[in-house]
Specification:
alpha+beta, 5-stranded mixed β-sheet, 5 helices, 2 domains, 210 residues, Alpha-Beta Plaits, 31% strand, 4-stranded antiparallel β-sheet
Amino acid sequence: MEFMRVKLTLTEDILGTASANPEIHAEYIASKGPDAQSVKEEVEAIGADAVLEKGMTVFPLDEDGDPMLWDYQIKGFFKDTAGMLKKVSGTISSGVKAYKKEIDGLFFIKERRIKIHNADEITICQRPLRAQTAQGERVALTSSESIPAGAWLEFTVICMRKGDMKLVREWLDYGKYRGLGQWRNSGKGRFSWEELHAWTDEDGDADLYD
């Protein structure tokens, strides 16, 4: 196995993705988690105060009350990025078959909860949503919690198959164009990254950063 500790630094604001309505979050968003216990954890992490703003998307909170991301959100970024880069000739990702299955089974994030550091100022981003319906175009306003550029997060990537970390590096490089969280197409959630440490299970420190 290969391991890499990375640090992401936001270059644009990131928007929260968890519905402030616990029932909606449990049914539609937390269902992406691996099991029923993870759904319970995620609904609890929204926080009781968030129920007051049911139309809003928010950041889940860790045990210290700090905003965070879940591990599967990083893997979701990997899948989204691999799908795009697969279409680009000359990229490493263009040679990966069944990339979603590969990421599900061979790439993991060691930390379940990933704290967003330096997130002292959380503001609200409100934007219009447009949709074409049988009655014509409909426009609604949606709101999300927003953490400004400069905040950062650290996590450890695990690759089950040696040699695959080059894919992760390529995917993380893509974060300068398309990032994490809501409204990514507008540039929200973009980031730069740095490699803090890389090692293999043969190095004898597989449990580093417990």
